[in-house]
Design brief:
The structure is a single chain. The chain has three domains: about 50 residues; about 90 residues, Type II secretion system (T2SS), domain F (Receptor-associated Protein); about 250 residues, Up-down Bundle (Receptor-associated Protein). It contains 17 helices and three strands. A hairpin with a 5-residue loop joins strand 1 and strand 2. The longest helix is centred in the last third of the chain and has 61 residues.
Length: about 425
């Protein structure tokens, strides 16, 4: 069992710090809440809250916990924008949360907002209240809110955070709009191929068997695969499910995630699209943290946790260690050989001029434009390419099915001559 550090307020409102034993983070949170305590923070003894070198089981349980308690990015964007608007208009945080909870359609998110409002009434700060909902508010979100509270510029930080999340949501929407069509076509192609092997090929196999014909090797292989699929439908389904589960668990591991992310970044066009999307998110996150006055080491740690790509995460981690050793920020990132020259140049200029947040914002906009241009090219090329792929795959299977008939026709023609 793992050990977790916690800070809570007990039923009497007394602040209590200590450790608790649990198999995973989810169980630790459940144990503390069952005792009637209000959680301020929970951290593994080995790493930061809800992140770090977790075991595979912890990562799996944490993923399930976040899925069970999390809300969509679109809902979070709307919440942040409304909070920024209401707070700027002079409403208290408690009143803003109460108003948003009344109009929230999602029961899950409404429950979170009501809990935040109640915690504010009990004297907690907004960031302390949000720390109790890691499935909804990540470490970046909480750190920015905390920075705004400390500096007295919470309304400005919330406004910047709303813009940031809107940009991230817009980038994600564009990337998915570019990838959704090919994913749909590939899934449809898989269903068509499965239908051919399950229904069509057995019909031809029965005809060929009645003629006792000598079949070519490709046709024999197709018939054997069709027979396997028909006679072991349930096992085939379990096999496919087991494959995806194994891949998911492999991807949860540090090494597996690094390998898969490395391969994805090397895929033509798609890799370029995702790389520019990641760099846009990296620069935008870096910019808003610098604007909020978060210390550089904390900024790099938070950026490392939000880029969501193992290759870039590793590069940011190496850069953070280099900065800790005394390197400049631009020099540290250049050493990793992962970041593009344009971004490195803007970081170096920002270091020299002291205007890094503004230049990083420009870098984010530059990479966002590259994302848009790649998406435009994809939408014009991907449809004909997928149609060719689909026609080629189905056509190849049909040729294999009809190959014995072609051979029979050629044999008859040769005999007549």
């Amino acid at each position: 069992m793992a050990a977790f550090q916690y800070i809570i307020k007990d039923a009497k409102g007394v602040r209590v710090e200590g450790t608790i034993k649990a198999t995973n983070m989810d169980e630790a949170v459940d144990k503390l809440t069952k005792e009637g305590s209000i959680i301020i923070s929970v951290k593994s003894m080995a790493e930061g809250a809800f992140e770090g070198e977790l075991s595979l089981l912890d990562k799996l349980m944490l993923t399930i916990y976040k899925i069970r308690t999390g809300v969509g990015l679109k809902a979070l964007v709307f919440f942040t924008r409304q909070m920024a608007t209401m707070f700027s208009a002079g409403l208290t945080i408690e009143k803003s949360l109460t108003n948003l909870a009344k109009g929230e359609k999602s029961k899950k998110f409404r429950k979170v907002l009501n809990k935040l409002s109640n915690d504010i009434k009990k004297g907690f700060s907004l960031s302390e209240s949000m720390e109790q909902h890691p499935g909804v508010f990540n470490s970046l979100y909480i750190s920015l809110v905390k920075a705004g509270e400390v500096s007295g510029t919470l309304h400005t930080v919330l406004d910047e955070l709303a813009v940031y999340l809107e940009k991230i949501e817009d980038t994600r929407r564009k990337v998915w709009s570019a990838l959704s069509y090919p994913i749909f076509i590939l899934c449809f192609l898989a269903i068509v191929v499965w239908g051919l092997f399950y229904f069509i090929i057995p019909m031809f196999a029965a005809v060929y068997e009645s003629f006792h014909a000598d079949l070519p090797a490709p046709t024999l292989a197709a018939i054997a695969l069709s027979k396997l699929i028909r006679e072991h439908v349930f096992l085939t389904f379990l096999g496919v499910l087991a494959f995806f589960m194994a891949f998911f668990l492999f991807y949860l591991s540090d090494k597996g995630k690094y390998i898969v992310d490395s391969i994805i970044l090397k895929v033509p066009v798609i890799g370029n699209l995702l790389e520019n999307s990641i760099m846009s998110k990296f620069a935008r996150t870096f910019s808003i943290l610098m604007y909020a006055g978060v210390p550089i080491m904390d900024t790099l740690e938070l950026v490392e946790n939000v880029v969501q790509n193992a290759v870039v995460e590793s590069a940011v981690h190496k850069a953070r260690m280099s900065v800790k050793e005394g390197y400049g920020v631009a020099g540290a990132f250049k050493k990793t050989k992962v970041f593009p020259p344009t971004l490195l140049q803007l970081i170096a200029t920002g270091e020299e001029t002291g205007d890094m947040d503004s230049l990083l914002r420009k870098a984010a906009e530059f990479h966002q434009k590259l994302v848009d241009s790649v998406i435009d090219r994809l939408t014009s090329l991907i449809e004909p390419l997928l149609i060719i792929l689909m026609a080629g795959m189905v056509g190849y299977i049909i040729i294999i099915i009809y190959l014995p008939i072609f051979r029979l026709g050629l044999a008859i023609s040769s005999g007549l001559k």
